[in-house]
Design goal:
It is built from 15 helices and ten strands. It is an alpha/beta fold and 409 residues long.
């Protein structure tokens, strides 16, 4: 799978009641989103952003072309269980609480009850809605509804996260929180495809962007490459005295170039967040949603668990089976090979008796000599497999070494 999202000549034409072509919502779109990147899909209203997302998710059928998510069709259950989607409008059941909403979506993904409970608590805390977990979502503000919508998009721990206007209706604190969350998810291996009209948000979080107009891509590339101006030079220094500024002015005049000397300005968002942080340090009360900056552990625990599980399995498989170590030589008695324990004999007897029923008319307590010999052979085979003796016997060099050791003993 080379790309997390890929479209091939994707086209969507909306027709009128008479079947005549009316609008090219998406026109021959070829889009490629790499794995583990944040990709921004931009454009004015009616440019085809939401239509593209719906075709990617299988909610709309393309007129022509193909849309692939995670290497397949998003309508395939094996694919869509790894996709999280936050639509432009959060369609929620008004009379369910926030916790019940996440539990409902967890049931749709067939998550076990224990997993649903753990993820619900973790996500509500992550999006700042832990204090209102049992409040009906019908009473939520638009910003709080977006928060619970983002939580439901993450309930299945998706590999691909598709966000349509994720920061709509959020206050500056919530907007900053969502942007930090998107950046952190990308660091943890998620792929994010987002649409937004807030260009400053896209500039802050996206690795690459594509600008749509009329259903076609008008520009595409890395944010820095698209925004950087090569016809200007910017120099930022510390505070300079009047003498230093006078020298700089002389140099600029000698170069016969236009220049401006000003003090740099912070972004309004940065100034706002600093003021709010100062108020929080004073422990001033607020009735709004809490601001969280951490990411839920379960969103990355799966990968760590798989890694640890693989390491343990590799260690178990690669570890050599050590033969029984003989005790210290005792001059007063002869050393015999270590025999299997009595419990192992009993277990092997039960296994062989259960696997092979006794012939009719014959007493199980007094088996025939042939049956006893065959049972002993079965026990020996099972014991060899459990202890790895069978594998060693297949290695000639190792077998000769073991035989020599036994002879010496």
């Amino acid at each position: 799978m080379d790309y997390a999202v890929e479209t091939l000549s994707l086209t969507k034409i909306f027709s009128d009641w008479w079947g005549r072509n009316k609008v090219f919502a998406v026109d021959d779109l070829n889009l490629k989103v790499r794995n583990n990147e944040v990709f921004g899909l931009l454009g004015p209203n009616g440019s085809g952003k939401t239509t593209t997302l719906k075709m990617l998710l299988g909610l709309l059928h393309p007129t022509k072309g193909k849309a692939l998510c995670l290497g397949g069709d998003a309508t395939d259950p094996q694919i869509n269980t790894h996709i999280g989607f936050l639509p432009e409008e959060s369609y929620l059941y008004r009379y369910l609480s926030a916790a019940e909403t996440l539990d409902f979506y967890g049931r749709l993904f067939r998550l076990p009850a224990r997993v649903r409970k753990m993820r619900t608590e973790a996500l509500l805390d992550m999006v700042g809605l832990k204090a209102v977990a049992h409040r009906h979502v019908g009473t939520f503000s638009k910003g709080m509804a977006r928060r619970i919508g983002l939580a439901q998009a993450l309930i299945n721990d998706p590999d691909l996260l598709i966000l349509d206007e994720p920061t709509t209706g959020l206050d500056p604190i919530g907007t900053r929180q969502i942007k930090d969350l998107i950046i952190e998810l990308a660091k943890r291996g998620k792929t994010i495809l987002m649409c937004s009209h807030l260009l400053a948000d896209v500039e802050d979080v996206c690795d690459r962007i594509a600008i749509l107009y009329g259903g076609k891509i008008q520009a595409e590339g890395h944010v820095r490459d698209l925004l950087q101006r090569t016809d200007k030079t910017e120099i930022t220094t510390g505070v300079l005295d009047r003498a230093a500024l006078a020298k700089i002015e002389q140099i600029m005049n000698a170069e016969h170039t236009e220049y401006t000397v000003t003090n740099p300005m912070d972004k309004l968002e940065t100034f706002f967040m600093n003021i709010v942080a100062r108020a929080r340090r004073q422990a001033l009360p607020t009735s709004g949603a809490e601001s969280k900056t951490h990411i839920s552990d379960f969103l990355t625990a799966q990968a760590a668990e798989k890694s640890n599980r693989s390491a343990i399995l590799d260690e178990l498989v690669s570890a050599p089976v050590s033969p029984p170590q003989p005790a210290e030589p005792d001059k007063t008695r002869h050393i015999h090979p270590v025999e299997p324990s009595k419990k192992a004999d009993e277990l092997l007897s039960k296994l062989t008796e259960t696997a092979r029923p006794a012939p009719p008319g014959r007493d199980r307590k007094q088996p025939a000599p042939a049956e006893t010999k065959e049972r002993q052979q079965n026990q020996k085979n099972i014991l060899d497999r459990l202890t790895g003796t069978e594998q060693k016997s297949q290695n000639p060099s190792q077998g000769e070494t073991d035989t020599g050791d036994s002879a010496d003993a």
